[in-house]
Amino acid sequence: MHIRISTLAENSASRLGLLAEWGLSILVETDDTTILVDTGTSMVTAANARFMGANIQGIDRIIFSHGHADHTGGLVDLLKLADRTESPVEIIAHPDIWAPKFWRTENGRPYRYVGIPFTRKLAESLGASFHLTPDPVWITDRIVTSGEVPMVTDFEEIDAGACVQTDEGYDPDPLKDDQSLFIRSDKGLVIVCGCAHRGIVNTITHARQLTGCRDVYAIIGGIHLFSASEHRIQRTLEAIKRLDVKQIGVSHCTGPIASAFLAHALGDRFFFNHAGTITEFDL
Question: How many domains does the chain contain in total?
Fold first, then answer.
């Protein structure tokens, strides 16, 4: 099984000519399907896709890892670039992506809207067809979305800043819409994450149970550790080592401190997955 993973948008760019922004978009191409995980924040994903010669017109599915703007905001520009009005592209996501999502800062400033920055009607007029479900979706016999990720560890938790607006004010956002993409190969799982808000170890545990594949070959994408405690980072590292993950390419919300810690501990198994990074596996 050949897998090609191209990062179209990320906080940093890997070479001249590419743009960077706070957000993430990863194109996954296998022998028989092409899937885009997230669309970044803005036109950057479309611009980088054009620069990289990415096969945007050939995308079979789009996965929204969750309903934050930095993972969904680039959809409109991508749909315009791909011209999918005559052949709509299915977008697999949890129903909660359309919740009014906000972020609460610790310094007392007002809540900031961080949800999807366009209407569903606009996206559908440009060729989006939404498949909203809390359950896993098998795209092929080897590729599946996680659906809702159960929280089973005792050290992973949702960031306290994540909120949803209600009639009474703001409530904590459980981020049930947080999901990842799992690819089952002969050498183990390849896990592509948007943010893993519900915990990367919880996500790995769910992947192994859902797919029946015990080995984890690679993890690529955001693993939300930028505000994590040293204890959580250490426990995460222990799990990655215990599972003998062969490659881990981190992006976006992993954070510089956690990334440096993982890079030092994992050596050549670790890499920074920036915009423009292309990783290929034969598994």
Answer: 1
What CATH number is associated with residue 157?
3.60.15.10
Q: What is the pLDDT of residues 202-216, one digit of tens each?
A: 999 999 999 999 999
User: What HEC string does 200-269 produce?
Assistant: HHHHHHHHHHHHCCCCEEEEEEECCCCCCCHHHHHHHHHHHHHCCCCEEEEEHHHCHHHHHHHHHHHHHH
Residue 112 and residue 102 in contact, taking contact as beta carbons nearer than 8 Å:
yes
Parent domain of 260: 2-282
Q: If 0-12 CB within 10 Å is exposed, 13-18 middle and 19+ buried, where does residue 33 land?
A: middle
* pTM for this prediction: 0.96
* CA distance readout (Å), 278 to 9, 95, 120, 166, 273: 12, 31, 31, 41, 8
3-class state of residue 3 by DSSP: strand
3-state secondary structure of 164: strand
Kindly report the backbone phi and psi dihedral angles of residue 231, in degrees, each rounded to the nearest multiple of 5, phi listed first. -60, -45
Residues 131 and 91: beta-carbon distance below 8 Å: yes
In residues, how long is the chain?
A: 283
CA distances to 13, 56, 155, 183, 198 from 77, rounded to whole Å, are: 19, 11, 38, 27, 29
